[in-house]
């Protein structure tokens, strides 16, 4: 496991450059790369705890008929034409907040996120693995755990729970070893590279 | 970590009905206890919380039992991690140990080099309150200290498994018998806990740029410059705060590398809790 490391100052600079690109670009292709909604947050007393985050509403799981609306991040589902009487698939929406924080342990960006049902209750680990945030087939079969998701060939759990480094609130944490394992088709996901560029895949 | 001792107080009929994963704890003062924190950290955190409570009188800053309130349902999921089972506690603990291993050496070879039975033995030792079983494995991954290398006092003989006499351990640098030496780590796994603030983690090398050992005072003045001014000639000219590790107030000249080997918790992390000194100057 090797990383090209960043200082927090470099991380902050990279995030702010990314956010300003998100504010500028408007054509659909650029918007995929630099989606709106990312904001930088400072901690009032500790500058080394600054991070960026974005909240969005996504379906609880993906279907291949989905179309993703670039303007609004809303999802609409195709109704098959030959069965206009069939009920529309109603799928639940989930509120996800993504936080890109600086990891002092690995000295690279790390992803923390929360996911809640509209009722306010948090998603369980199996429900998290079904979110369209992740590449299909990424996760091994159910491991029966509820705290963390372990994968073979890695000493660190891919996904586990932890306190958000700045907010202290419970979050899910994607281990930096695994941030390359993101869904190439997903509009919502952020690939974290260890250079100054933080790109959306 | 708190869950094990609680299960024995219910009779069998009641125990069948309650779901342990729904349990959660508060201190008597209403502070939520994080189940994934080590108990010692929970206690020290309780101590420093008392240091900022306006109703705490100087006499009650003595060491007192931590009084808990156990709730059996409806854990506040906006504040607590989910599903606190025995297995979750173990996973949280092992995750912290591996992260500490990575911080120290830039890889996790020492932890991953352990057989599965040994890794399980770490947790079993903790679960069964059996230090020897825990230390049998942990001594293989914890940095060692050699008195010849630092200004710090030598360790007492009860930890002789963990030190070698100076004569047997010449200063050989990396790769020699001192490969696991506390001063050869890349960085020390440390976190700072404030009475009412975020958890602070920084990159903490064993030596400063000038080659001198990184001290607790150096570390605190870098991260909490207003509470721990770098020099006594800077305002406010009197002490504002004090650091506690494992329930002990630690002097500023303690070396971070030594703390990393000798005052870390079972998971490898040095947890520094900061208490605030109030006007009358009393403290723990």
UniProtKB/TrEMBL annotation, chain A:
> Which family, according to UniProt?
Belongs to the ATG10 family.
| UniProt lineage | Eukaryota, Fungi, Dikarya, Basidiomycota, Agaricomycotina
Q: Which protein are we looking at?
A: Ubiquitin-like-conjugating enzyme ATG10
What Pfam families does the database record attribute to this sequence? Autophagy_act_C
Question: Keywords of this protein's UniProt record, alphabetized?
Answer: Autophagy, Protein transport, Transferase, Transport, Ubl conjugation pathway
Q: Output the InterPro entries linked to this UniProt entry.
A: Atg3/Atg10
Q: Which organism is it from?
A: Somion occarium
Does the entry feature the keyword Transport, yes or no?
yes
From TrEMBL, chain B:
Q: Report the protein's function.
A: Involved in cytoplasm to vacuole transport (Cvt) and autophagic vesicle formation.
Q: Which Gene3D superfamilies match?
A: 3.10.20.620, Autophagy protein Apg5, helix rich domain, Phosphatidylinositol 3-kinase Catalytic Subunit, Chain A, domain 1
* Highest taxon listed in the record's lineage: Eukaryota
Return the Low complexity bias intervals. Answer: 149-166
Q: Which InterPro entries match?
A: Atg5, ATG5_HBR, Atg5_HR, ATG5_UblA, Atg5_UblA_dom_sf, ATG5_UblB
Q: Where is this region: Disordered?
A: 142-181
Q: What positions does the domain Autophagy protein ATG5 UblB occupy?
A: 187-274
Q: Could you give the subunit structure recorded for this chain? A: Conjugated with ATG12.
Entry protein name: Autophagy protein 5
Q: Which compartments is it annotated to reside in? A: Preautophagosomal structure membrane
Q: Which family does it belong to?
A: Belongs to the ATG5 family.
What region holds the Autophagy protein ATG5 alpha-helical bundle region domain?
Answer: 87-143
| Domain Autophagy protein ATG5 UblA per the UniProt entry, residue ranges | 9-71
Topology versus the membrane? Peripheral membrane protein
Q: Which UniProt keywords apply?
A: Autophagy, Isopeptide bond, Membrane, Transport, Ubl conjugation
């Amino acid at each position: 496991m090797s990383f090209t490391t960043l200082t927090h100052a470099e991380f902050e600079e990279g995030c702010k450059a990314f956010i300003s690109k998100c504010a500028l670009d408007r054509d659909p292709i650029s918007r995929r790369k630099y989606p709106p909604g990312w904001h930088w947050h400072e901690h009032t007393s500790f500058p080394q705890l600054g991070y960026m985050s974005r909240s969005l509403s996504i379906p609880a799981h993906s279907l291949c008929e989905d179309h993703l609306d670039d303007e609004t991040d809303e999802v609409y589902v195709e109704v098959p034409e030959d069965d206009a009487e069939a009920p529309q698939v109603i799928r639940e929406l989930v509120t996800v907040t993504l936080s890109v924080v600086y990891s002092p342990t690995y000295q690279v960006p790390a992803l923390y996120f929360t996911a809640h049902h509209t009722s306010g209750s948090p998603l369980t680990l199996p429900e998290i693995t079904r979110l369209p945030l992740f590449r299909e087939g990424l996760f091994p079969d159910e491991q029966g755990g509820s705290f963390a998701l372990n994968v073979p060939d890695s000493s660190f759990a891919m996904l586990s729970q932890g306190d958000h480094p700045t907010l202290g609130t419970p979050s899910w944490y994607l281990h930096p070893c695994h941030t390359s394992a993101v869904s190439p088709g997903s509009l919502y996901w952020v690939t974290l590279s260890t250079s100054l560029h933080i790109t959306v895949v | 970590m708190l869950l094990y001792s609680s299960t024995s107080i219910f009779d069998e009929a009641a125990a069948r009905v309650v779901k342990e994963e729904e349990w959660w704890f508060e201190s008597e003062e209403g502070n939520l206890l994080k189940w994934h924190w080590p108990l010692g950290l929970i206690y020290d955190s309780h101590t420093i919380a008392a240091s900022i409570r306006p109703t705490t009188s100087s006499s009650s800053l003595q060491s007192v039992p931590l009084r808990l309130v156990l709730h059996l349902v409806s854990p506040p999921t906006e504040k607590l991690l989910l599903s606190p089972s025995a297995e979750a506690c173990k996973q949280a603990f092992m995750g912290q140990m591996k992260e500490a291993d990575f911080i120290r050496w830039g890889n996790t070879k020492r932890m991953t080099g352990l057989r599965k039975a040994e890794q399980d033995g770490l947790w079993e030792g903790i679960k069964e309150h059996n230090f020897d079983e825990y230390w049998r494995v942990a001594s293989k991954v914890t940095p060692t200290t050699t008195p010849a290398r630092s200004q710090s006092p030598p360790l007492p003989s009860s930890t002789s498994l963990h030190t070698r006499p100076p004569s047997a351990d010449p200063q050989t640098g990396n790769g020699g018998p001192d490969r696991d030496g506390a001063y050869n780590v890349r960085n020390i796994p440390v976190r700072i806990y404030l009475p009412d603030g975020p958890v602070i983690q920084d990159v903490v090398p064993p030596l400063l740029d000038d080659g001198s050992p990184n001290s607790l005072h150096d570390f605190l003045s870098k991260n909490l410059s207003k509470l721990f001014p770098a020099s006594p000639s800077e305002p406010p000219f009197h002490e504002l705060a004090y650091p506690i590790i494992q329930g002990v107030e630690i002097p500023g000249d303690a070396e971070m590398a030594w703390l990393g080997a000798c005052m870390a918790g079972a998971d490898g992390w040095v947890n520094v809790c900061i208490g605030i000194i109030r006007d009358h100057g009393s403290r723990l």
